[in-house]
Amino acid sequence: MNTLAARFNAIFGADMAGPLAALAAVLIVFGVASPHFLTGATFGSVAFQLPELGILTLAMLMPILTGGLNLAITFTANTAGLTLAWTLQANGGIDAGPSAFLLGSALALAVGAASGLVMGLVIAFTRAHPILVSLSMMIFLRGLGEFLTRGGDISGFPTFIAPIGHGSILGMPVPLLILIACVIASHILLSRSKLGFSTYMIGSNIESARYSGINTRKVLVLVYMLSGVMAAVAGIIMLARFNSVRVGHGESYLLITVLACFLGGINPFGGFGRVLPVFVALVVLQLLSSGLNLLGANQHLTTAVWGILLIVVMVLRWFSAKFIRIVK
Hints:
Helix content: over 70%
Number of helices: 14
Distance between the termini: 17 Å
C-alpha cells in the first residue's frame, strides 16, 4: 500500500489524491442517482459553464498563495466587462468592428490590472490585511458600477463576439480552450518562474523572504495585478456568454473560487499548492452543481451544499494533518 501511494505521489503529487477521490465520488453517486448524468449533454454543459468560474479561481489562487485574498475578483471582472461594453457602445454598439473589440479588451485588461495595482500597493506598503483591502476595493467597484449603470444592464454587442462565449473549435468550446490556456500559463508561471518561486516564499514566511533578498513589495504588487488581469479575462468571457453586462453578474462565484482552492489542496495561509489539483477541484464542483440540477435541486440548495462542503473540507484537512502527525 505504501509503495502504491508513493508511486501515485510521484506521478500526480500528494495533493491530487483529494480532488481525484472527490471526482470519483461525484461521478459514482450522481451516475447512480440519475441516468442522465453520465451523458455528453452533462459534460458539454460543464465545459461551457466552467471557464469563467475557472478563470476567476485562478485570479483568486495567486493572492491565496501569498497568504492573502482577493475578494474583489467578481466586481473586477464586471467592471472590466463594463469597460469593454462601453467601448463597443461608443463605437457603434452591435455595428462595432473588431478594432473596437480589441481596444475595449485592452482597456478591460488595463482596468483589471489597475484594480490589482491599487490593492497590491496598499497591501505591500501599508501592510494592511488583504481581506480588508480587497473588501474595500470590492465595495468601491460595486458602488462605482451601480452609479455609472444606474443598476441596469448593458447589452447589444456585435455578433462576432458570441463565439468567444458559445463557439467551438474542433468540438472544443472556445471558452474552455481559453481556460486551459490560462491554466497552463498559471502552472508555468508558478512552477517555472522567479515570480512563482517568490510567491511561494512570501506565503511561507514573508519576513524570511525579505531577508533572503526577495523584493516582497514588488512581488505582492505583481501578484495582485496578475489577479486583476485574470479577473478581467473572465469578465470578457462573461460578456460574450451572457451578451450583457451588469455589476452583479457572478456574485456567487466568490465562494466557489475559495472552495475550489481549498478543495484543490491550497494552504489557506499561503506557501503551498498547485494549479492542476485546483483545476480538478473546479471540475468536481461544476459536476456537483450539474448533478444537483438534474435531481431537481434548487440553485439556493446548491449554494448551501457548497458552503457545507467548504466546512467539511477544512475539517477533513485538519483530521488528515493530525493523523499524519500521529503516524510520524
